[in-house]
Amino acid sequence: MPWTGSTAERLGDVRVNTPTRPRARVIDRTVERPRSVEAPGRNEEEYVPRTRMEGLNRFFNVVLAAIGLALTLPILIIVALLIKATSRGPILYTQTRVGLDRRWRRTLALRESRQEDLGGQVFTIYKLRTMRVDAEKVSGAVWATENDPRVTTLGKYLRKYRIDEVPQLWNVLLGDMNIVGPRPERPSIVARLRHDIPEYRYRHRVKPGLTGLAQINQKYDACLDDVRAKVSWDLRYIREQSLWLDIRVMLQTVPSVLLKFQGW
Fold this sequence. Notes:
This protein is mainly α. The chain has nine helices and four strands, in the order ααβαβααβαβααα. Helix 6 (187-196) links the parallel strand 3 (178-180) and strand 4 (209-211). The longest helix has 33 residues, at 54-86.
């Protein structure tokens, strides 16, 4: 399939045939689970995450997420009432996303219970609903586009200033995400990108984040080359990750959101 047109039109559900095998337990059918995709990669030593004090990093993320939720709680309550009053459907929108891949390192894989290789552990992400409840009834799993007709009137403003992403601070408290890291994607989109971009799978070696180097340095995706550029930023992050880098990214995210600079 040629990579032309909008990203949303290009990326859809991917079906890849793999040999069937018995499963030890029943898989929840409500979770979006495309079959695994294996892609060749380069020297894996190039993409080993930089060592850091994970305990300190976790403490830092939990504290900031708790403070962020406490400070934004009044705004979230007001926005929740507005969502309920202006459109039909729930206040929160949940999606299945692909997170940290523990299988790449044997010591972490011992705690991994996934029956399929989806690229990482799947988790439920939380967002304020900005689209109609039937937004994906026809299109399926696709990325949102600029001036997306599925977005509600209120949702346009929530998305513009990324207020819809604030509930993901709860994902940080749960340990699914960090504040800074590669943005998580849906399993079907991950399967497609792992097939088209061999290095894509390495970005799952760290926890996903609310913001990252790709978001403050790269604009919205318009073609596959744009996605490759974002992957390059994500891979740079895992090679250079540190507490100070996270702080720098957070500080640059604020003007990026308010001024609509680069990826935000």
